[in-house]
Structures are given as structure tokens and as C-alpha cells.
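Exercise 7. Given the encoded structure of a 93-residue chain, write a plausible sequence.
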């Protein structure tokens, strides 16, 4: 029996994408990465601002306690500094 030679199979599938396709893919991935980085920066700034707000609220609460001790109320007009004292209940007979 004679041996048959195996035919070589030629793979005709492309080995890589076109230069234009590669450029578009790279641009899309780079844009996505930049956007994600920007979101991270924004989230970090948001966290810092929330932390700052918490500190400012604590400071305001502390001032309210001081005003309550000194004036009996912390109801102050922040535009002109006028103290808004609570109205006394006056009973008439």
C-alpha cells in the first residue's frame, strides 16, 4: 500500500484586525479609561466634601449649644445677627 502525502491545510483566517479598526478600538478603550478615571476623581472629591460637611455640621451644633447657654436660644437671624427670643406665654386673668 502506497503512503499518501498529507495535504497541507492553509489557514485563510486573518491574523489581525486592520490598522483603522485597531485605532478605533484603542481610542474607545482610552476614552473609557479616561472617563472611569474622571469618575474616580469626582467620587473622591464628593467624599472629601461630604466629610467637610459633617465637620461643619458638628461645628454649627457646637455653636448652637454655646448660643443656647448664653442667650437661651440659638434662633439667630444669620443676616443681621438679631436674636429671635421665644415668645413668653402671658396669661391674663
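Solution.
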Amino acid at each position: 500500500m502506497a503512503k499518501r502525502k498529507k495535504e497541507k491545510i492553509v489557514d485563510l483566517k486573518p491574523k489581525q484586525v486592520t490598522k483603522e479598526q485597531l485605532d478605533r478600538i484603542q481610542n474607545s478603550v482610552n476614552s473609557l479609561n479616561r472617563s472611569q478615571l474622571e469618575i474616580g476623581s469626582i467620587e473622591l472629591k464628593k467624599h472629601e466634601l461630604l466629610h467637610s460637611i459633617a465637620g461643619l455640621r458638628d461645628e454649627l451644633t457646637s455653636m448652637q449649644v454655646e448660643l443656647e447657654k448664653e442667650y437661651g436660644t440659638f434662633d439667630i437671624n444669620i443676616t443681621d445677627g438679631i436674636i429671635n427670643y421665644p415668645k413668653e406665654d402671658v396669661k391674663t386673668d
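Remark. Residues 19-85 form one domain. Students should compare their own answers with the one above.
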